[in-house]
Design brief:
There is one protein chain. The chain has helices spanning 13-25, 63-80, 82-86, 100-112, 133-140, 151-159, 207-220, 236-243, 257-266, 281-288, 301-308, 319-330, 333-348, 353-368, and strands at residues 2-6, 29-35, 48-54, 90-93, 116-120, 145-148, 167-169, 194-198, 225-229, 248-251, 269-272, 293-296, 311-314. It folds into two domains: 2-173 and 352-368, Glycogen Phosphorylase B (Rossmann fold, 3-Layer(aba) Sandwich); 182-348, Rossmann fold. Helix 7 links the parallel strand 8 (194-198) and strand 9 (225-229). The protein has 369 residues and is of the alpha/beta class. The two termini are 15 Å apart.
Length: 369
């Protein structure tokens, strides 16, 4: 099959590279249409023709003008994709960054192209400050098949009226590409236990609950550090609080892939105290790099950790439960090793890109029918 992956802003490039390379390894002709990645070396994508076709003019503008320039250029870049899309058997779209304009384009493309249109609903669950149920439903409307990463995401879309026979659940593969980049260790002491909170800081990710728990963790594990890595995108209050909390190293910026991998490898435990979610690339990164996880039992976290045994689950919005789990894991090297080993097994097996590619092939075939 000739498959075109479309990720205009490159919001999930490690995911795109992993899926694309696995599909190429199975004999498909894979092209990724995206934009230039400005944050360091990405995981490799062998066999994938990466075409940086979005925002080539806008990204030359000064930073303060870049967002507006991208908005102006976006539709023109989509239209310029049509010759490539006409040759495809499957067009697989990852994100709709411009909402109504994207939806209008893909509705028109559905009538113009012979390709099957597939969409991955990376955000299938409405969350505080991110999207709405109406927007999520509208984003799914132009596509023949919608991929979701969890039973929770599938149920959420069905409640919005998306027909069950258009939905395909494919678990989020482990982001094993981070094992192929040069890891950059964070500037942290070597001889202290470290918990990591990583990714964009948004209210729904529950960093505030983790900060509520951290003084109690420090009282029971003297010298422990909480490494907060990521830029704020609507979670400014939590980010500011992290920067002034004792025992917290707040690195409030976008991390390059090598820095991300280095922070993961340095962490003794990765903490995901989310209040709502479907699925997370942070969890997929931790599993890929064999890091023990503590996550709240929301969205797809519970099913992933139940299936992999790679971490501990705690109730959401419960700092006392977070404290107990972090203290237990930091104090038990044997348990950490067991969870890390389970993560490695999952990353090589059920959550491998090979399995994901096989499942996507089946989804593409059903889209044709």
């Amino acid at each position: 099959m000739r498959i075109v992956l479309v990720d205009p802003r490159g919001d999930s490039r490690p995911y795109d590279h992993g899926l694309g390379a696995a599909l190429a390894a199975r004999g498909h002709e894979v092209t990724l249409a995206t934009c230039r990645f400005r944050h360091g070396a990405l995981p490799p994508a062998p066999g994938v023709a990466v075409q940086e076709r979005f925002y080539r003019l806008a990204d030359r503008l000064p930073r303060r003008l870049r967002r507006g320039g991208r908005g102006c250029e976006h539709v023109a870049d989509l239209i310029a994709l049509l010759p490539l899309l006409r040759r495809a058997d499957v067009v697989h779209v990852m994100w709709l960054p411009l909402g109504p304009a994207d939806r209008a384009f893909w509705r028109g493309a559905r009538r113009l192209l012979r390709a099957r249109l597939v969409y991955t609903a990376h955000n299938a669950v409405a969350k505080e400050g991110v999207g709405s149920a109406a927007q999520i439903r509208a984003d799914c409307e132009p596509f023949d098949r919608i991929v979701v990463h969890s039973h929770a995401g599938q149920a959420a879309l069905e409640r919005l009226g998306i027909e069950p026979d258009r939905l395909v659940r494919i678990p989020h593969a482990a982001l094993t590409g981070y094992g192929d980049v040069d890891a950059v260790p964070p500037p942290l002491p070597d001889d202290v236990p470290v918990a990591l909170f990583a990714g964009l800081i948004r209210p729904y990710k529950g960093l505030g609950d983790l900060l509520d728990a951290w003084p109690a963790v420090r009282a029971r594990v003297p010298g422990a550090l909480l490494h907060v890595l990521g830029r704020s995108l609507g979670g400014d209050a939590d980010a500011a609080r992290a920067a002034r909390t004792e025992g917290v190293v707040a690195d409030l910026r976008y991390a390059a892939p090598g820095e991300w991998a280095g922070a993961m490898r340095r962490a003794d435990v990765v903490v995901l105290p989310y209040r709502s979610i479907d699925q997370s690339g942070v969890l997929a990164s931790a599993i890929a790099l064999g890091r023990p996880v503590i996550a709240t039992d929301v969205g797809g976290f519970g099913e992933t950790l139940a299936d992999t045994d790679a971490g501990l689950l705690v109730p959401s919005r419960d700092p006392a439960a977070l404290t107990a789990a972090i203290v237990a894991l930091l104090g038990d090297a044997t348990l950490r090793a067991r969870l890390a080993a389970a993560a490695a097994v999952a990353a090589a097996g059920e959550l491998s890109w090979e399995r994901a590619a096989e499942r996507h092939e089946a989804a593409y075939g059903r889209a044709a029918a």
